Queue: 2 jobs
Job 1
Amino acid sequence: MRYFVICSITVTLFFCILEIECCPRIVSRAQWGARKPRSVSRILPVRYVVIHHTVTGFCNTQASCSSQIRSIQRYHMDSRGWSDIGYNFLVGGDGNIYEGRGWNVEGAHARGLNRNGIGISFIGNFQARSAPANMMAAAKKLIQCGLRKVYIMRNYQLKGHRDVNPTSCPGNKLYRQMNNLR
Ligand SMILES: [Zn+2]
């Protein structure tokens, strides 16, 4: 039993170094069909993790989530005039994490915390509807991954967008669920 525990910890660390085991599956920009960003910059690790919702329809397949994300990117780049999609990562109802700007690039999602925070946005509207368990598990795993890789400071603070800017984001239901992401 003891041998098994030590063995499984060793195997986990080994795969973690290989970036296989300790992070959730992340659908890359190429996989969801992203356009190229216009600029990039960031200094890691960050002190804040900021939770958002997209206030779009829900999606539960990689194809439908990718399509949602492409239209969010189009809106952020063409209507808002930003250099890229605003979020660092998105969480799909299919249980996948989608790469937005990623770990290394400053986002445009929460005024005041963009430089020092990772923005994670749940695809859908979570004002009156709870985020399902698969989305919560994926987001939690992403945060754990960021902590292990020291992209996120150990003493980080978890914020809802409404804690930082005047907005209802990430919705009442998801805001109440946020403690489960720690
Ligand atoms: Zn927000």
Job 2
Amino acid sequence: MPTTNDQRLMTRIGYGFDSHEFHSGIPLRIGGITLAQDRGLSGHSDGDVLLHAITDALLGAIAAPDIGALFPPSNPKWKGADSSVFLREALKRVRDAGYGLANLDATLILAAPKILPHAAAICGHVAELLRVQPDCVGLKAKTPEGLNLENTAVAHVVVLLERTKRARNATSKRTRR
Ligand SMILES: [Zn+2]
């Protein structure tokens, strides 16, 4: 019924990038999973480079403010925060805008650890957080050949959103017609 006046695009694409530096003595969190390593990624939250890039991709797809604007590093509230909080907020905004996630493709760049043994667990957890099937989450990991990034983890993410129902905040002024 409401689709005739719905001017929203059928699909929207989003892109997110993030990087964090490795430091010893902190847990390594990637995609909401803690990997047993002697060094982790430092950041104002839990340093989850993958969840941050996904969050920014989702926010970017609906032209919302980015993760740094919504959750400023200067705010002590977010120090050590579980990054799934950021992801959930981004997902809520996507849904409120009347879109759902079709699929996601991510590339991690890091020297160590090897991601392949953990890929299924990471994809499964990310899919659960995003409430999609695991085969909607693509994850590739590369070593930083020639990039001089031995001490850094980088994540690139693209998402595709599909229009669902009406945007939650959309006002319907044409109900009589
Ligand atoms: Zn980050």
